Amino acid sequence: MTRRDGTELVLLAALWGASFLFMRTGAPEFGPVPLVFVRVTGACALLLPLLAWQRGLPALRQHWRPLLVVGISNSALPFVLFTLAALVLDVGLSGIFNATAPLWGALIAWLWLHDRPSPLRALGLAIGFAGVLGLGWDRASFRPGEHGVSPTVGIVACIAATLCYGFSVNYTRKHLLGVPPMAVAAGSQLGAALVTLLPALWLWPAAPPSSAAWGAAAVLALVCTGLAYVLYFRLIAHVGPAQAIAVTFLIPAFAIAWGAIFLGERITLDMLLGCAVVLLGTALATGMIGRRARH
Question: How far is CA 65 from its chain centroid?
């Protein structure tokens, strides 16, 4: 990994960590589904012209069915779930839960694709999910908050969102192997936009969102989604997916930092310890620690 690749990796983590901040800012006024529709539509506006410039539009027609599945499982549904969680959970906590996506990916690969993990990776799965349980245990409450969502619902939404990511990465591996990455990025966002269009119109807020909420939605769409996808697939092309997945370990740090700086969220010791346990489990489950040791 060159210095430029390392810089782009850190920038990508900062953008994806910031996405939880902008979800928390825009969700109260837009609502989860309308905000996600604005997000994925804005991302389409950036990614589709890039795909056209690369002459990759025919891939959308050729692979539209699996791209639609990925659009639902990797964008529409998890974005709605994380935005729902943003109504009640801190930015940092949502970012930590997001780091469990590789755990679900490894577990689903084991159950669905029969990619049996080594004993060390199986231990990582157990450690990672124990960290999630520890983080959620003290925060679980069924009492609705200001926006009618309870912490328990928020926690379950985060876990369900990362489960969607775990399914999507394995589905992509099985059905979209060899498809140009930019076509997957643009096509999945287009699919997500089509799926969320009617629900967003039905649930569009009666009171017009403020300029601050629209600003958060625009940054979320163009920067935290559109630009972030460009960076992510550049990294995959330059250093490979195994190195690019390292962004997962940096996102919680940025999410915690952005929440503390801009929203005054408290950084607690149990949150940091839970984050460390989740990341340790993820590193073991994805083989990163074992791979480094072998090298």
Answer: 22
For 111-138, give one letter per residue: b (16+ CB within 10 A) or e: eeeeeebeeebbebbebbbebbeebbee
The Cβ of residue 6 has, within 10 Å, a number of other Cβ atoms equal to 14
For the ranges 18-32, 73-87, 233-247, the lowest mean pLDDT is seen at 233-247
Tokens linked to 279 = 């990341």
Q: How far is CA 46 from the centre of its chain?
A: 19
pLDDT tens readout for residues 46-61: 999 999 999 999 999 9
Terminal-to-terminal C-alpha distance of the chain: 15
Q: What is the mean pLDDT of the chain?
A: 91
- Give the single-character DSSP code of 210: P
> pLDDT tens across 133-145, in order?
888 877 777 788 7
Question: Measured between alpha carbons, how far is 223 from 196 in angstroms, rounded to an integer?
Answer: 20
For residue 88, the 8-state DSSP code is T
Nearest Cα to 249, choosing from 291, 289, 295, 294? Answer: 289
